[in-house]
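Table S2 (text version). Query chain:
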Amino acid sequence: MAFETPLALLALASVIPLIILYLLRPKPLVVKIPSVMFLMQVEEKKRFFTSITKLIKDPLFLLQLLVLILLALAAAGPYIITNEPLSDEHTVIVIDTSASMQTGNRFQEAVTKAKDYVSKENSIVLAHNIPVTLIERQDAKSAKEVLSSLKPGATVADISAGMATGMRMLSQGGGRVIVISDFTNWEGEDPVSVKNLAESYGLKVEFIKVGNTADNIGIIQGRLETTQSGYIYNCVIKNYGSSDQNVPVEITTTDGDTVTTSTYLQVKARSTQQLLLQNLSTGITTIKINIDDSLPVDNVAYVSIPRISNRRVLFISEQTSLPSMTSVSLMPGIETNKAVSVPQNLEKFSVVVVTNKSLSSGEISLLSSYINNGGKVVFVASNALAAQDTNLELQKLLPVKTSNIIETQRGLRMKVNQSTRLTDDLALDEIAVYKYLNATPRLDTTSLIASDKGTPLLAFGTVGEGTVVYVGFSDQLGEDSWNNFYNLPDFPVFWFKLIGWLSGTGDISEYNLKTGTVSTLAKEQEITTPDGKETTKRVLYSSAGIYEVAGRTIAVNLYNDKESDTTIDASDVIERASRKDGPSVVRATTYESKNYLDNIMIVVVLLFIILELYIIKKRGEL
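Corresponding structure-token output:
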């Protein structure tokens, strides 16, 4: 027997006062009778041994002694280690929720078969492009209720990641993993390889294939381009069937009024045809294939073009030349303004950038009011943001807590903490940082880029209804420069993305996404998805359709040739999964289990206390 907390065994010392108490307790008065005087001399010699004998034979003493010993042992967390067999009672069901599972009745068949594998203890994992655990270690009734409520998504499934999630759930007690899919397409590792790995660790894995091959016609690509005359949309329609098709296409544009036009495309068997739409208007344009086929999710494509008016960006700085302002001034639809102090009226500006400017208390108050009412402010690192040059009110506005300025001769190693559109394609290894502000992120701040020691260099957070961004790359020029970022081609691209994100303009691609994309919001808020409304800070675009996120109307499409190919027969996957190349189990079929005894000891203690009370009452002492 071992103990979780051996130091608790010191409580065994409590038996010493108990023994002393019983030895020193008052003895009954002894009356000497002369007729038995000869016996008293014998009694004197045996007094010591008689006391110990009576002590041992006293049932109350023994009970109290055992109670103290058991309580001390229970406090130490006693347990014994046993080898338990890996159990089949825990079943992890991994269900493919990719777009191809919408073909015919594949998903309904998957749910029906999943219910047949429900056991005493169940976990359900959805194989999206990112695995989603719905329930863990729930009973059969709960599992069947969850299965009945499932709907397929429109992403590519990472089946291997879903299986890996199941393996982690079963790593201690064992069990089985049931993978239900059409096995036509996936991201990540080959599911058969992951199955072999899981079985080598003593887990049982079973592949259940659903669905049959079918014909399909779908939109597999879509590209939106910006020209001087407007927007051009080019999409590709593919016929997966064995016969030529005259495909009816309906184009609907919604921008106040709804306008619908129709056309036909002749698409040969197992071939593609392009559809080009020019001069698209703002709003939502829907391209729909009016044909009844096996996979409806790829019959519709959505295009979102925002209604954007010119946005004004104010730069507040005492520096004459600002590389950041030069970059932003090149953006279409953006009007840049510069001031050396904070003006009274900030409401007319979409974004305010503060760089190389020492702010007075009155200016900080104006910025605070602007931010709390929904304004967007960017603070760029400079001497003015060092702790000794900022007051408490300014520190409250910043998403980071700044301190001193640090100079580095060897440069600063940086990493991306969270991948977003702002950090994508940003070559951090080419940015040489000579000087930076030492800072720490606040509790509700999202740090996107940081040094290897955790100092934030790009972070954002919310203050009231507004958004505040901290850019740790100062844009000072000449001998006072802190870095070489302003000389790199990534610099204007970064400011394009940053101002576009904050001002609500952004690149047109930010309004047109593929399913499976993930984005992070500044704070938790309500969004509208094709499946309804939800409140979140992290958006997973798992369904095709229209999303309303942070004031933007975003079109999300499948655009995946392999997911649309419903003619794939995945029998080879099942064949490979069933093939046995020989014994490969690297772990025994048992596992070590800690069986704790403290609860048993506490129950025994309670029984002893009840017995003690019974004895005391029987003696008439209660």
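Notes on Table S2: Confidence is low (pLDDT under 50) at residues 582-589. Residues 122 and 138 are 5 Å apart (CA to CA).
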